[in-house]
Specification:
Layout lengths: L7 E5 L16 H12 L10 E5 H7 L3 E3 L3 H11 L2 E4 L11 E4 L2 E4 L12 E3 L5 H16 L5 E8 L8 E8 L4 E3 L15 E3 H13 L8 E5 L45
């Protein structure tokens, strides 16, 4: 049996990335982000087999997806515009009001809109076309560092019901297989696995999210080395990691969801 190489991960510090970058007309947003990435990697360049992780927030910033917010009413309106579906507004009166939404087939508060690590009185949206951006950035970095096997992940913080704290989730990725299907294989006791699929990309996103931090670290990038992934030159299909409610083990919890969710369509559950 071949010995697995030791997996390692390191955060990469960068100068602060601002929305002024969006003013460079005619330059692709991935190439704009490269102007921050390449100096940050100067002392420790990418190698074949690495996976480069990028905060989805800095992607959104270079895309110009930041909005000045004057009050809570405007923020609530923005959430309704960005969400594919409103699950519930205002939340419990005993807790901080939260608008629960479905965005890009992901359950997320406030449609992923964030007011942290951005200028005061501003909000940053989720990136536009994250899979397409990840693919473009992956190709650019492969070209810059002369790589064959290489991947990119766009990561954001995420939370799950009944668990404290945040972990990472991939909003988009490129260059490798994001989910491995183990159905039909045998476990240690010879039992046939019937439902097991391993979400590789979100596992890696969580690892990266941990070292990248959430506040003043100024490390919007991370490099994962020797990740146990299957690299691919094919374009990642979004449905590789996503599923509809009817296929999900937790389907009884959200029978009232529209399937499929329609972009920009909002409804309030009664």
């Amino acid at each position: 049996m071949q010995k697995m190489k030791e997996l390692s991960i390191r955060a990469v510090k960068s100068k602060i990335i601002t929305s002024k970058s969006e003013q460079k007309i005619g330059t692709s947003k991935a190439k704009i982000l490269l102007e921050y990435i390449l100096p940050a990697l100067q002392k420790s360049p990418l190698k074949n087999g690495d996976i480069f992780v990028v905060s989805s927030k800095v992607v959104a910033v270079v895309q110009g997806r930041t909005v000045k917010i004057k009050d809570q009413k405007q923020f609530d309106w923005l959430v309704r515009q960005e969400a594919d579906q409103i699950i519930e507004e205002n939340g419990s009166k005993k807790t901080r009001p939260v608008t629960l939404t479905l965005k890009n087939n992901i359950f997320i508060p406030w449609a992923g809109i964030d007011r942290s690590n951005i200028q005061k009185d501003h909000a940053v949206l989720w990136p536009h076309e994250p899979y397409e951006f990840a693919d473009e950035l992956c190709k650019e970095l492969k070209k810059q560092f002369k790589l064959k096997n290489f991947g990119v992940i766009l990561v954001d913080s995420f939370c799950v019901p009944l668990r404290k704290g945040v972990f990472g989730i991939a909003l988009g990725y490129a260059g490798f297989q994001g989910v491995t299907d183990q159905r039909g294989q045998k476990d240690l006791y010879g039992n046939t696995l019937k439902v097991t699929q391993e979400n590789v990309v979100d596992s890696l996103a969580t690892m990266a999210n941990l070292v990248m931090g959430q506040s003043t670290e100024q490390t919007p990038f991370a490099v994962i080395t020797n990740a146990p992934v299957k690299f691919s030159q094919k374009t990642v299909q979004k449905n590789e990691v996503l599923m509809n409610a009817q296929e999900c083990l937790f389907e009884p919890l959200y029978k009232n969801l529209q399937q499929p969710a329609s972009p920009k369509r909002t409804s309030k559950r009664k």
